[in-house]
Structure of DUF421 domain-containing protein:
Amino acid sequence: MWFDSWSDIIRVLLATLASYAAIIVILRVSGKRSLSKLNAFDFVVTIALGSILASVILTKSVSLSEGIAAFFGLAFLQLIVTWLSNKSQTFAKAIRSEPKLLLCDGEFQEEALANERVTRGEVEAAIRKKGHGVVEEIAAVVLESDGELSVICDGKAADCTALRSVLKPGETSL
C-alpha cells in the first residue's frame, strides 16, 4: 500500500516528465483556446486533458504513446469544433450557449433567472464583488456563456454596446 517498488516510482516519474513535455508542446501548438473556459465544450476538453494526464502518469495499463495520442486527438477535435463554429452560425449555436441578461437597469429578469437557475442572491453577490451595493444603480448583469456573471455598472442597458448580443435593437429590458 505505501510502497511497491522503485521501478514503479521511476516509471511514474518518467511518465510524468514525458507526458508533461508532450502536453506543453501540444498546447503551444493548439493555442490558448485549449485551456480557456469560453464555453462548456472548452471546459470539458480541459477536464479531459487533466484526466488523460493523470491516467498516463498513474495507470500502468495506459501507455505514454496512448496518452499522447489522446492529447493530440482532443487538441484536434478542439481545433475542428472551433473552426466549424467560426464557419457555421448553426454549429456555433449548437455548441455554445448564449449569454443571458439577468438584471437590466436595476430590475431582475425573473424569467431569465428561472430559466438559467440563478438566484437573486447569486446576482447580488456578483454585484458586491464588483464593489457596488445598490442593485437599482446597476445597468446590467449578464450570465456569460462560460458561466461567469458580468456586471455593468454605468449607464443604461440600452446605451451599452457590450450588451448588443443580449438586447434586441431598441429594447431596454427583456
DSSP finds six helices and four strands in the chain. The chain has a mean pLDDT of 86. The helical segments are 6-30, 40-58, 64-87, 89-95, 110-116, 120-129.
